[in-house]
Write a structure and sequence with these properties.
alpha/beta; seven-stranded mixed beta sheet; 7 strands; about 40% helix; disordered C terminus
Amino acid sequence: MKILLVWPTPQPEIEVLIKELTNAGHEIVYWVGYHSVSHLTPKGAIFHDHYDAWDGKPANALKGASFPPPSLELIERLYRTESIVLSMMDKHYDTAPVNERKHIYYSMLSYWTGVLDAVNPDAVVFAIVPHTVYNYILYELARLRELPHLVSKTLMLGRIFCSMTIFGLEARSYVLNSAVLPVRIYTTCR
């Protein structure tokens, strides 16, 4: 299975996750993570620094890529997303006027649509509930495309929260019993 992984965490967690996913036969085609662990990027995968994504900068491997602007149909289908994202921008783009925020939103919408088209993942896996502009846009695009997407968050030692939607329509708790957690979570929550 081809996975777009949004997992900005330090070692050793990400090292174990990548190893277990690849050992289980999954292919990580795109990974948003911390620059300090970018050397762990699997062969053939595109690495994107979390903070660059947050700033609306493309992955280094895609700096020369040109993606078309979002279609009117896509913009209309994501009108709720636009409203949420413009408010989310209070955190990182607090001094930007509304027109600049809209430009950033449409640029990110174009970029992440292009990424999904280019890498064609079978699933999108998030380490935490999407709460920054880029990962919320990516979450909504995955949902719109009906791509399986997993949102997980460690709640306490030995437990993990897993949700197919960030709005809590399907949520389960699983006991962790080994390092193969990410693979088991994904196959359980499909």
